[in-house]
From TrEMBL:
InterPro entries: Amino_oxidase, Carotenoid/retinoid_OxRdtase, FAD/NAD-bd_sf. This is 4,4'-diaponeurosporene oxygenase. Keywords: Carotenoid biosynthesis, Oxidoreductase. It comes from Actinokineospora fastidiosa. Pathway: Carotenoid biosynthesis; staphyloxanthin biosynthesis; staphyloxanthin from farnesyl diphosphate: step 3/5. GO terms for biological process: carotenoid biosynthetic process. It catalyses: all-trans-4,4'-diaponeurosporene + 2 AH2 + 2 O2 = 4,4'-diaponeurosporenal + 2 A + 3 H2O. Belongs to the carotenoid/retinoid oxidoreductase family. CrtP subfamily. Pfam families: Amino_oxidase.
Length: 488
C-alpha cells in the first residue's frame, strides 16, 4: 500500500482518488479551495442555483464505469436525463436550428432549417468523425501517450495516421460544407476545448460526432450533483480530504517524489497525483530538473480561452424553453482574433451562450436561472480587475442578447459576474483558462503533458494533461493513472 497525495479536488483528482483508494492505497486529497469540484462549481443567489462550470454531460458511461469499477452505482446518486433539443442555434441572418438529441433526427433537422443539402453534407462530415473516433477513442484516449513514438505505435498503419491528419485544421475540414451556417456550427466545437477552429486539428470533428452519437445529458439539480456524488463516494472508500490547504511545493530527491509542502509543512508521500493546471505545477510547485523537458514543452503551448459569465436570476419564463442557446455573431473570426490575437481584448460582438435548465430545483416556480457565457481572453493579457470593466462588459453582453432577440434586462432580479480573473483566483488555472492548454496546433491537441511524469512517483490528471479537458476526458485521465500506479 502506498501513501498517495492528490493535489486538487477537481473531477480528475476525485476520480483518481476513488480509483486508487479502491485499489488499496491510502489516499489524501489537498485542495486549495474550501470545497471540491474544481471548475464544476455552484453559486446560489437567493432561491436560484447556478452551475458555474460544464452544463452538458457527454459520454455519461465514463462516470457510470468509474462508479461501477470502484464498488458504487452512479444512478443511485444522480438522475441523468437527456437534453432535447441539444441546443438552439441562432445564426447571423436570423435563421434558427434546434439540434435534436437523437442522432437519426439530426440530418432532417438540418435539412429543414438550413436547406435540403445541409443534412447530407453534415452526415458525410460525421462519417469522418465516426472514423476518427474509431481510431482515437480506445487507442489514444484510454491509454498513456508520451510523445510522437506512442502516437505512431497506436496508429495501426500509415493510412490510419493519414486519416487522423494532425496537420489539417477543423476549419479546413469544414470547407466541404457549402452553407456558411454549417461551417459556423462546426467551428463552435473548437471552443469545447477552448481553442481556435483555424488552428485546432481536424481531429476535433470527433466532438460533434460524440455529442450526436452518444447524446447530451443533464443531471437534475445541476451538474454539480455529479461532483457531490463522486466526493461522497470517495469518502465511502476512505479518502481523506483537506480543504483550504494549498500545496506550495513538491519535494523530490534522487529517487523521485518524497512528498508535498502544505502551508509550510512537509507532508510525506510515496506517490503524488497532480490535478493542478500543468503550467502551475511546473512553474510554481516543481523545481526538479527532470521536469525541465515538460516545462519547455508547456512554454510552447497556448493556454485555452477563458470565459466571461453572467449569472442571471430572471422573473418569468422564456418561450420556447431551451436548455442551451447559442447566438452567433456576424463575424466569428473577429471573435477568435480578439481572444487569441497578438493584442487580446474583450470581444466586441461575441457569440453568446445561455444555459437555462427547465429544472424546478434551480429556480422558484415561474422564474429562470440563466448562466450566460461569452468567450474571453485570459486575465493578464487583459486586466479583468480594471475598475468598471466587468460591469460595463456585463451591460454590453445583455445588450447583445437583446439585439439578437432575447431582451431579458427588465426581468433581472439578481445578477452576478464571473471574469477570467475570478476563474484564476478560484481554480488556479493560468489566467483563468477554462480548459488548461488549448488544442491550438497538432502538438498541443495530441501531445499534452504525459500522465506519468519524468519525476518518478509523480503523475498528472485533469484537463491540462492527456487526454484533455472536459468531464469525460478528465475521468479517463484518472483511469490511465490508476492503471499506471497499479494496485496496492
Amino acid at each position: 500500500m502506498a501513501d498517495v497525495a492528490v493535489i486538487g479536488a477537481g473531477m480528475g483528482g476525485l476520480a483518481a482518488a476513488a480509483r486508487l483508494a479502491h485499489a488499496g492505497h491510502a489516499v489524501t486529497v489537498f485542495e486549495a479551495a474550501p470545497t471540491y469540484g474544481g471548475k464544476l462549481g455552484v453559486t446560489r443567489l437567493g432561491e436560484f442555483t447556478f452551475d458555474t462550470g460544464p452544463s452538458l454531460l457527454t459520454l455519461p458511461h465514463v462516470y457510470r464505469d468509474l462508479f461501477a469499477e470502484t464498488g458504487g452505482d452512479l444512478d443511485e446518486h444522480v438522475d441523468i436525463v437527456p437534453v432535447d433539443p441539444l441546443c438552439h442555434y441562432r445564426f447571423p441572418d436570423g435563421s434558427v436550428l434546434d439540434l435534436p438529441h437523437a442522432e437519426h433526427e439530426v440530418a432532417p433537422a438540418l435539412a429543414a432549417a438550413l436547406g435540403p443539402d445541409a443534412g447530407e453534407q453534415w452526415t458525410r462530415l460525421m462519417s469522418r468523425g465516426r472514423r476518427l473516433w474509431d481510431l482515437v477513442g480506445e487507442p489514444v484516449l484510454h491509454r498513456p501517450l508520451n510523445g510522437v513514438p506512442d502516437l505512431l505505435r497506436h496508429s495501426r498503419n500509415v493510412r490510419d495516421l493519414l486519416a487522423i491528419a494532425p496537420w489539417r485544421t477543423l476549419r479546413g475540414a469544414g470547407r466541404g460544407l457549402a452553407d456558411p451556417r454549417l461551417r459556423m456550427l462546426l467551428d463552435r466545437y473548437a471552443t469545447y476545448t477552448g481553442s481556435d477552429p483555424r488552428r485546432v486539428p481536424a481531429l476535433m470533428t470527433v466532438v460533434p460526432y460524440i455529442e450526436q452519437h452518444h447524446g447530451g445529458w443533464y443531471v437534475q439539480g445541476g451538474l454539480r450533483r455529479l461532483a457531490d456524488a463522486l466526493h461522497a463516494h470517495c469518502r465511502e472508500l476512505g479518502v481523506r480530504f483537506h480543504f483550504a490547504a494549498p500545496v506550495t511545493g513538491i519535494d523530490t530527491d534522487g529517487r523521485g517524489v518524497r512528498g508535498l509542502r502544505v502551508a509550510g509543512e512537509s507532508v510525506p508521500a510515496d506517490i503524488v497525483v497532480s490535478d493542478a493546471d500543468a503550467h502551475h505545477l511546473h512553474r510554481d510547485l516543481l523545481t526538479d530538473p527532470r521536469a525541465a523537458r515538460a516545462r519547455r514543452a508547456l512554454a510552447r503551448t497556448q493556454p485555452s480561452l477563458s470565459g466571461f459569465v453572467l449569472l442571471l436570476a430572471l422573473r418569468g419564463t422564456t418561450t420556447p424553453r431551451r436548455h442551451h442557446r447559442v447566438l452567433f455573431p456576424a463575424d466569428y473570426d473577429a471573435e477568435f482574433d480578439a481572444v487569441f490575437g497578438q493584442r487580446p481584448r474583450p470581444v466586441d460582438d461575441p457569440t453568446v451562450y445561455a444555459c437555462s435548465p427547465d429544472d424546478p430545483t434551480v429556480a422558484p416556480p415561474g422564474h429562470e436561472a440563466w448562466f450566460v457565457l461569452v468567450n474571453a481572453p485570459r486575465h493578464g493579457p487583459v486586466d479583468w480587475d480594471a475598475p468598471g470593466l466587468a460591469e460595463d462588459y456585463a451591460d454590453k453582453v445583455l445588450a447583445v442578447l437583446a439585439a439578437r432577440g432575447l431582451d431579458v434586462r427588465d426581468r433581472v432580479l439578481h445578477r452576478a459576474i464571473r471574469t477570467p480573473a475570478d476563474w484564476e483566483r478560484d481554480t488556479g488555472s493560468v489566467g483563468g483558462s477554462l480548459y488548461g492548454s488549448s488544442s491550438n496546433g497538432a502538438r498541443a491537441a495530441l501531445l499534452r503533458p504525459a500522465n506519468r511524469s519524468r519525476v518518478p512517483g509523480l503523475f498528472l490528471v485533469g484537463g491540462s494533461a492527456h487526454p484533455g479537458g472536459g468531464l469525460p476526458l478528465v475521468a479517463l485521465s484518472a483511469a490511465i493513472v490508476a492503471r499506471l500506479i497499479g494496485p496496492a
